[in-house]
Design brief:
Layout lengths: L4 E11 L7 E6 L21 E4 H10 L8 E5 L7 H11 L4 E6 L8 E6 L4
Parallel strand pairs: 2-4, 4-5
Antiparallel strand pairs: 1-2, 1-3, 5-6
The structure holds iron/sulfur cluster.
Length: 122
């Protein structure tokens, strides 16, 4: 089976505002929402960023894993669910306490809102 790759805008190795504790933050590339006050408009284009595999993300995580004992990893963007297959592959590997920030699509485009949750894989 071919390894799934995602377009990743950037990785932040020492995130302190995207969930509890110190976290590695994965900013996924691509978002169709076009929110007026978006703080990451450079994530919008799905063609941008760098292609990465789950193993490449985890290798970066492992490099600093001692910092993440009370934190973990947050996947955000952009809109992570544009690259759902990748997120599905990544999350069960990560374990408990990891976080996915996402935006809910509505076909009308009239009401857009934001929520997040903590995964509970163990
Ligand atoms: S959903 Fe998030 S990344 Fe997308 S435009 Fe809105 S604020 Fe920006």
């Amino acid at each position: 089976m071919a390894e799934i790759k995602a377009r990743v805008h950037s990785l932040e190795s020492f995130g302190t505002v995207d969930g509890p504790g110190v976290r590695m933050v994965v900013f996924m590339q691509g978002c169709p929402m076009r929110c007026l006050y978006c703080h990451n408009p450079d994530t919008w284009g799905i063609e941008g960023g760098t292609e990465m595999t789950v193993d490449e993300i985890l290798a970066q995580y492992d490099r600093n894993v001692s910092f993440y004992k009370r934190g973990g990893i947050t996947v955000t963007g952009g809109e992570p669910l544009l690259q759902m297959d990748f997120v599905i592959e990544l999350y069960p590997i990560l374990g408990f306490g990891n976080r996915l920030d996402l935006h809910r699509f509505q076909s009308s485009g009239i009401r857009k809102y934001y929520f997040s949750f903590e995964s509970n894989y163990e």
